[in-house]
Amino acid sequence: METKQKKASPKAKCGLCDSAKKALTKTICCDNWICDDAHTYQIFSYARNSCYRNHDRYTLCAYHHHEGHKGMWQDCKKCKKSLDLPEYVEMGTNEHNFEVLKNPEKFSISCINCGFTADTVAAFAYQTSKGYYCDKQKCQEAVFKG
């Protein structure tokens, strides 16, 4: 994850967390001011406390850029085709975006272990090649018994 440090004006602030106190940089995908904090991420911690890393890893904006797709990510058929619908909608509407998908498609997901159903990926603790598992202990245990 390479960040190019650009000098922020005194009034500049992170477009995600609103902080004007941290060092800022511009995103490589959409040229927005963001906290220059990718270096603070602890590997394998799965923490979501880095504005830069969150935008870079969990948004369609960054995905579109990393894949080298042309045009705007909001209109990209390649992005939509390469991700399953729940993942596509989550990456286009989560809090790590500067701009979100307008009128995303509706969907529901069911836990493959207990049948719990929700309309957001965030309601599930794990996603495997078999499907989604909710956060109930018996379902999380089922992930590893597989």
Can you tell me about this structure?
- The chain is of the alpha+beta class.
- It has a domain at about 110-145.
- About 25% of the residues lie in helices and about 10% in strands.
- It has helices spanning about 50-60, 60-65, 75-80, 85-95, 135-145; strands at about 25, 35, 110, 115-120, 125, 130-135.
- α1 (about 50-60) packs across α2.
- The longest helix is centred in the middle third of the chain and has 9 residues, at about 85-95.
- The chain is globular and about 50 Å long.
Helices and strands, in order, run as: EEHHHHEEEEH
Summarize model confidence as the mean pLDDT. Answer: 91
Number of helices: 5
Structural class: alpha+beta
Strand percentage lies at: 5-15%
Instruction: Report low-confidence residues grouped into runs of 5 or more.
Output: none
- The strand order across the widest sheet is 1-2
Shape: globular
Termini separation: 33 Å
**What does the radius of gyration come to?**
17 Å
Kindly state the number of beta strands. 6
Percentage of residues assigned to helices: 25-40%
What is the makeup of the main sheet? 2 strands, antiparallel
